[in-house]
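Here is a complete protein record:
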Amino acid sequence: MIPENHSVSKLSLCWGSLDGVAYPEFLSAASEAGFDAVTLNSALYREATASGLSDTDIRASLRDHGLQVSGIDPLFNWLPGSVVLDGTDPISVCTQVSMEEVFHLAHVAETDLVNAPLGLATPSSEQEIVDSFGIFAKRQRASLCASAWNSCHSIRCPISRQPLELSNMRVTLMVE
């Protein structure tokens, strides 16, 4: 369940500020520096699970450090034509994961925020972005319904407008 006191106003350390630092050291650094929260990405999650941590262990390690997760950043591959990079660096890994993996990480981290930048995709129109976001929302909903979260949970997804300049784009989606 997402904590009721979860808030974007908490002092949060972005994973990119310590890019390449291992999961345990990242949490220690954030905690010791006085941060209330961190952002996580799929590369950190994969590294943590490869080291033997379970989802329960990951939640416990966050609690042990007094940290919440303010968001999962980034989900690159929600647009058609998204580029998948070879490599094991964090950005490459984040281009390789499925939407469902990112939604699972949001569940594990007990956060309701997933950042969905345009990433390395080059959408052909504003309409393609709107249509893709609709597909994204339906997949997010299906993923939540299949998980331990019940139907009252949702995920907020800010969409970075860079590098495209969108004119008067207005999207309202309710997926029930």
